[in-house]
Structures are given as structure tokens and as C-alpha cells.
Amino acid sequence: MAKVHRIHSMPDDSPWDGGLPPQGSSEHPAAIRALDGVLRVQRPVVVAHLRSIRLRHPNASTADIVRMLERRYLAAVTTGGAAVGATAVVPGIGTGVTLALSGVETIGFLDATALFAQSLAELHGIPVENPDRARALVLTLMLGQEGVDLVAQLSRQAVGKGGTRSAYWGETITKSLPRAAVGPLLDRLKGAFIHQFAAKGSASVIGKALPFGIGAAIGGTGNHLLGRRVVIGSRKAFGVVPVQYPTELEPRPGASRLEAAAFGTARRVGAAIGAGGRRTIAAVRPKRGVEKESAPPEQ
């Protein structure tokens, strides 16, 4: 008997309001399931991250903290790309290993972007507690103008010809877009992201596998350019940073140790991208040394 696909039509007891099957469904595409798994930075982590920065820089303005976030984000994603590309230089690390590390690095890039984007939303006084809104924000930043156009199109369809009243698309996604429109928007963004990554991302991944240091240059430069696009897009997404730092993001009294620990955890999101490449290099080099020592002498 042929499989009959279920029609997902938003039943009364279902919180789902999108065009794709709900998360966890066997009908959910594998690539989309993987993407959902990556974009899972929860709001408590974001808040702890910002409180930890505030703890270290109590006199910094909101704009200063935004600049710190931008610098840290670019440093994290650029270092990750260069580290993966550098593995192609080391004898004994094959192209297959480098390509596998590129996949890990992509996950790290998305993690870092999710933390960066949600942190900016919080600084603009927009708490992002809905995970679908958070995912839509990250994917729109990654897609650039294509993502912004999708937001504008879906906003007009959901609200009317004029769209939402929000001046910035970041606020539209995280706050003013009707809940029923978030699911369809997220579906469109996921599909566009998978398509764009398949077309452009594969070239970047292969570029990082090139030997003789070329891979490191391509990896670092490519990630930096994409990171810069995300940063520029984020400025257009929310506009000018408020002068007043959100009270909720101030460090809690007596919580210095806890906030410092949270800062270390959040900072490792980006650092873990490059660590995979460095660990692989360290693991391969000793093995090659052993092989050299145990090799029979030339006759």
C-alpha cells in the first residue's frame, strides 16, 4: 500500500503553524532537521552571556558592548575557517578529514551567529523567547538581502499591503510579525538557506581543502566576508542601539562567579570551531613521528 502523507493543517491542539511537518516528524527533511538542531541557543544562555560582558565592563555603553559583540563574533568565525583550512597543509590529514571538519565548522558558525543575533535583539529591548523567531532572525542574517526580501514579502501577505509598522526587519521577525506567519516564513528561510549553502557553501568547503596554505587563506577570508555580511545586516536589522542599557541584562548582585562561568561557556561557542582543527593536527603529527622512527633504514 502506498504511503499516505498526513496533511498538516494546524489542528486546534497543535502549536505548529508552518508549511513543513513539525519538528521530529518522519516527514521532516533531513537537512532541515539538522538545521533545527544547530539553531538552539536558548535565551538564558544569551542573557548570561550579556551579563558576563557587563560584569567585566561595567562602565561600557550599550553601543560599546555591541562593538565588543561584533569583534568577538568576527574573530570567532574567522579563526574557525582558517583553522579548518590549515589542516590541509599538515601531511597525513587527507581531504576527507578536512571536509568533515568543514561540516563541524559550519555548525560552529551557525552557533556563533545565533548567539550574536539574539544578543543584539536583547540589547535592543526585544527578548526572543520563541525559538522559531530566533531561528528566523539568524537565517535572515545569513541569507542577506534574499532573506530580507522574504521577510518583507511574508509580512505584506500576513498583515496587508503595507506590511508591519516596524521600521526594521529585525523587529518585524522578533516582535511584530503575527505568530501565524512565523512558521511559513521560517519554512521559506530554511529552504532558501539549504539551497544557498548547497550552491555556494560547497565551493567554500572544497576551497578549505586545498593544500599549501591556500585552504587556510580561503577558509579565513571566506568566513570573515560572510561574518562581515552578518554584522552589516544586523545593523540594518535593528537600527541605532538604545542609549539605556536594559535593566534585565545587568549582572545580579553576588552572582559574579556564576556570570563569569557563563561567559566562559558562551565564549567557547566560537573557540570550539578552531579547536577541532588544532586537535586533529596534534593527533596526526605524533603518529607520523612514530612512523618515521620505526621505518627501516635505507639500504
The amount of beta strand, in percent, is: under 5%
Q: Report the order of strands and helices.
A: HHHHHHHHHH
Profile the largest sheet: none
- Which residues form runs of ≥5 with pLDDT under 50? 1-21, 81-105, 201-220, 276-299
Strand-pairing-aware structural class: mainly alpha
Number of domains: 1
Specify the overall morphology.
globular
Number of helices: 10
Please provide the count of β strands: 0
Q: What is the end-to-end distance?
A: 70 Å
Q: Write down the overall mean pLDDT.
A: 68
Whole-number radius of gyration?
22 Å
Helix percentage range? 55-70%
Task: Give an account of the 3D structure.
This protein has 299 residues and is mainly alpha-helical. It has one domain (30-283). The protein has 10 helices and no strands. The longest helix is centred in the C-terminal third of the chain and has 39 residues, at 256-294. The model is unreliable at 1-21, 81-105, 201-220 and 276-299 (pLDDT under 50).
Descriptive terms for the model:
mainly alpha
Would you spell out the secondary-structure blueprint of this structure?
Layout: H1 30-38, H2 43-56, H3 62-86, H4 95-123, H5 131-143, H6 145-159, H7 169-176, H8 179-208, H9 214-238, H10 256-294
Give a concise summary.
The protein has ten helices and no strands. By secondary structure, the protein is mainly alpha-helical.
